[in-house]
Design a protein that fits this description.
This protein is mainly alpha-helical. It has eight helices and no strands.
Length: 175
């Protein structure tokens, strides 16, 4: 069975899943305490095992042990993601605290989005951060930014492009 799995035989993946799927699910469920998360982790485990099947070495232990190891890593990833979500909710709660004056009408989703963007923006190098802030908060064109900062227009464009690519990658991983 393990040899067929490593060789990429799809039928062996089905056999492996039928044999150890409940073990993986039970481990994830006990640790996470949530059925949906456990189902997601189980799917991630078998997907990771299938993609990384060439890394399995039968001499180092059985297939069940290898799957349990992958499960431990995926459960740890799920717990870390849960922790990040809790931090974001706490940060959003701070933004949602009632402030004097008229309400902005920002709902929880917009506040979480704002927190995510601000955190990602803070991680940019200062030159890129400055260019992005001038473009989006001061509503300046790249030419106006170059004039205001004294940077060459090509440098402003490079900073903007790198910053937007970094922000896209950063926000894609937190979504």
């Amino acid at each position: 069975m393990a040899a067929g799995f490593v060789a990429g035989e799809e039928g062996s993946l089905e056999v492996v899943y039928r044999r150890w799927g409940s073990l993986v699910y039970t481990l994830a469920r006990r640790t996470l305490g949530d059925e949906r998360e456990a189902e997601d982790v189980t799917q991630q485990v078998f997907l990771a095992a299938w993609r990384g099947r060439h890394g399995y070495r039968p001499g180092r232990g059985g297939l069940a042990g290898w799957l349990v190891g992958i499960t431990r890593h995926k459960v740890a990833d799920a717990l870390a993601a849960r922790s990040r979500r809790a931090e974001l909710v706490a940060a959003a709660g701070a933004f949602l605290a009632p402030a004097p004056g008229p309400a902005t009408g920002a709902g929880p989703e917009q506040v979480v989005d704002r927190v995510l963007v601000l955190r990602a923006l803070q991680d940019l190098p200062s030159a890129q951060q400055h260019v992005v802030r001038l473009a989006f908060y001061a509503d300046l064109t790249q030419t106006q930014i170059a004039e205001r900062t004294g940077l060459p227009l090509g440098t402003v464009k490079s900073h903007m492009r790198r910053a937007l690519l970094t922000l896209r990658r950063s926000l894609a991983t937190t979504a």
